[in-house]
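Title: [Solved] Dihydrodipicolinate synthase 3D structure

Original question kept below for reference.
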Amino acid sequence: MVSYKVLSGGVYSPLPTFFKNDAKKSLDLEAQVAHARHLYDSGIKGILVGGSIGEAIHLTEEERLTLIRTLHKAVPEFTIIAGVIGYCIEDIIRQISVSKENGASYSVILVPGYYGPSLVSQKGIISWFNSIADKAELPIILYNYPGVQNGIQLTFDSYKELSRHEKIVGCKLTHYDFTLYTLVGKSTELRDNNFSPFAGVGQVLVPALSVGIEGVIDGLSTVFPKSMIHLFNLYQEGKTEEASKLQELVTAVNEMTAVLNLLGIKYAIKHRFGLGESLVGRPPLDQEIDITVWDKHYEDFKKLEALEESL
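Solution (posted by the thread starter after getting help):
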């Protein structure tokens, strides 16, 4: 039996996709590489390419593969998690295969929510993921993001069932259901099955670590990588009071990204690093953002920026 490597604990960054300021909003690979190199040099464990922050649904498959291939060539030591999109089992299996060929080490797959909870059962979701995993050429991370999957929430029992598949090695929890965080993080069955749970929102990193979650895949780490790693390390070193204080600041800054999402991340990256010709995405995300929320949290942003520069 093949042994599939679990994703090691720590901080991972879901990359935004940078576009040039031209009519096609073509890929800005120069900015993409510069940003990834900074994250690697800062100590980030790996990157998620083609996720929700990466605007994968607005990219062609060749563009997604170009990103993986380019970043793997530029920073070959980086662990790359490839986002795949869609609901067709055979096509997802194929996407995973070509992602591996271009340098990805893991795949992350969103819970299938197109038809909503009235039609999609937990048994159906389990069947769907297992059918993909049976033929997948990369280990799979379950992506549970109810906000974009018609409110469907993968249950604890479903996690336990899916963790029994050797190729399903972890999950990304992008929600605030702390009952589920606790059950998944504290489960000896999941741990015995070599299943690694990760938070998908940095706002709850310290509370999540306290119940056994092994790390975070969070957008704020693309702006403040050293600060997010520092927060993770403070908790791991037992410095809980310091970790709690920093968590408060991280959560305050994340309030901006929670509202503005990937466009807020792009705005913050441009502000800090000067990277990216365009601050908007592809249609329908091609409109300038209202920066009122940014202004509201700017003082907290400056405090976190000062910490980042000191690390």
